Amino acid sequence: MQIMVALWMLWERLFHVVMRLQPLVPGESHLFFFSVRRYFGRPFVAGDVTVKRFDRVIEIHMNNQLIMQLMRETDSLMALVVRLIQLAKRDLPLLAQRLASPEFDGIGVLIGTTFIHRSVQHFGFQTRDMSSRLWRWVVRRHLRFVFRMVNPHADEFLRSHAEVFVPKLVYISRARLLQRFRVIPSTPTVTTSDQ
């Protein structure tokens, strides 16, 4: 099992490099990472923003190392959910502050794929089913694998709570995120030179 965990952690580091994940605050551990990428799914609407294929989006990624640590420290699913909600309350304002930068102007929506989606509406997010059955199957298998890496009772839990491990797309418009956490978008500094 230790070898599997080590391989998984190696994969995590590689994934961070390939996906160019950025931390909320460099050098600090938070619940989220994010990256900017192209969207390849079916069109959908987030608030007053329509997301089409090939649009640039901000993709949110959970900090799997932190979740692994929490799973080892908590003895029930409810305790884990409570802790995740606490961390989300702490870190979403930081995410909003980070994304208020002008470098993200023109990107209308944040998206993520997760099985931890049952309380996201409290933070202004919406959820929808993943449009691709194949991708939904891949993500579900991946999440189950991760859970088995950190929980010795994973198989028993998966048999009795299979419905929990159904991944969904979670999303929110950038404008709504900034508004919800009362963050004013930064404006580019305009410099002029003497003629």
- The ordered H/E elements are HEEEEEHHEEHHEH
Shape: globular
User: Major sheet: order of its strands?
Assistant: 1-2-5-6-8-7
- Number of DSSP E strands: 8
Strand content: 15-25%
Overall mean confidence score, pLDDT: 82
Fraction of helical residues: 40-55%
Number of domains: 1
Question: Describe it for me?
Answer:
This protein has 195 residues and is of the alpha+beta class. The protein has one domain. It has 6 helices and 8 strands. The chain has a 6-stranded mixed beta sheet, sandwiched between helices. A hairpin with an 8-residue loop joins strand 1 (22-23) and strand 2. Helix 2 (64-73) crosses helix 4 (133-150). It starts with a helix and ends in a 15-residue tail after the last helix.
